[in-house]
Amino acid sequence: MTASHAALLEAARSGAQAAAAVILDIYATPFEVRRKADQSPVTLADEEAERLIIAALERVAPEIPIVAEEQVAASGLPATLASRYWLVDPLDGTRGFVDRSDEFSVNIGLIEDGWPVLGVIGVPTQHLIYAAAGPGTATRRRDGGKPERIAARVAPAEPIVLSSRLHGPSRRIEAYLAGVPGAVHRPLGSASKFCLIAEGSADHYPRYGETSEWDTAAGQAIIEAAGGSVTTLDGARLGYGKAGYRNPPFLVRGRT
């Protein structure tokens, strides 16, 4: 991890912590739910979290463009693609937040030349921050504690297969489970699925539904640093800067 990445990682971690705090504050209130143009929900928590994250990143590196979900919803995608840029989802799992399922996260990823090189994911209801910036650097830190190294595991005899709770069971998920001997299925919301695989608590996460690059960049950086992988269904490493910042179906796995 270079010195510049160390400073950027600390800025992202600081932004995620500030965002997590304001998200929990709003979570404890009878907040309003509005609808964006695509009919997805948005709350004050999404907007305040994004404002705090952008401020934290710009304090350290104002020259790095930021592609953040709520800004994109309001103003559209950037006209040009930079070689280095942040991808921010200030409240991944807004539906889980609205439903008070406790399953939501804060995602901050850095892309360089089409690949995720740094990632921070905050899990507010668990008071956890996951972070990484290169091979072997993946950590997990609880509020007030010290970072502890985490690593993906080789799948055990009964591997845990995660799927999106929001999108529910599907024939493709059922087919995937049928192809994994001994699989134990666990639906879950938000990018915390990446974190569970990175820390060795789960093993597979197939995703067939539509996702944006800001949904996956932070998680991919953490997974890869922990020894796992994020690939398209044909086995290629998932890259960034695609048309519309949209992902194809992908598979997250621990060590193989």
Features:
globular, 2 domains, 256 residues, three-stranded antiparallel sheet, Fructose-1,6-Bisphosphatase, Chain A, domain 1, seven-stranded mixed sheet, 27% strand, alpha+beta, D-Maltodextrin-Binding Protein, domain 2
**Count of alpha and pi helical runs:** 7
Q: How would you spell out the order of helices and strands?
A: HEEHEHEHEEEEEEHEHEEHEEE
Using the 3D structure, state the CATH architecture of the largest domain. Answer: 2-Layer Sandwich
Shape: globular
Share of residues in helices: 25-40%
Assigned CATH class of the largest domain: Alpha Beta
Q: Give the structural class.
A: alpha+beta
Number of strands: 16
Output the strand order for the largest sheet: 3-4-5-6-7-8-9
Proportion of β residues? 25-35%
The H-level CATH homologous superfamily of the largest domain, spelled out, is Fructose-1,6-Bisphosphatase, subunit A, domain 1
Span of the ends, CA to CA? 24 Å
What's the structural domain tally?
2
* CATH topology assignment of the largest domain: Fructose-1,6-Bisphosphatase, Chain A, domain 1
Low-confidence stretches: none
Major sheet characteristics: 7 strands, mixed
Q: Would you tell me the overall average pLDDT?
A: 95
Rg from alpha-carbon coordinates: 17 Å
Overview of this structure, please?
This protein has 256 residues and is an alpha+beta fold. It contains seven helices and 16 strands. The strands form five sheets. A seven-stranded mixed beta sheet has the order 3-4-5-6-7-8-9, with helices on both faces. Strands 12-16-14 form a three-stranded antiparallel beta sheet, with helices on one face. A hairpin with a 2-residue loop joins strand 5 and strand 6. The chain is globular and about 45 Å long. 43% of the residues are buried. The mean pLDDT is 95.
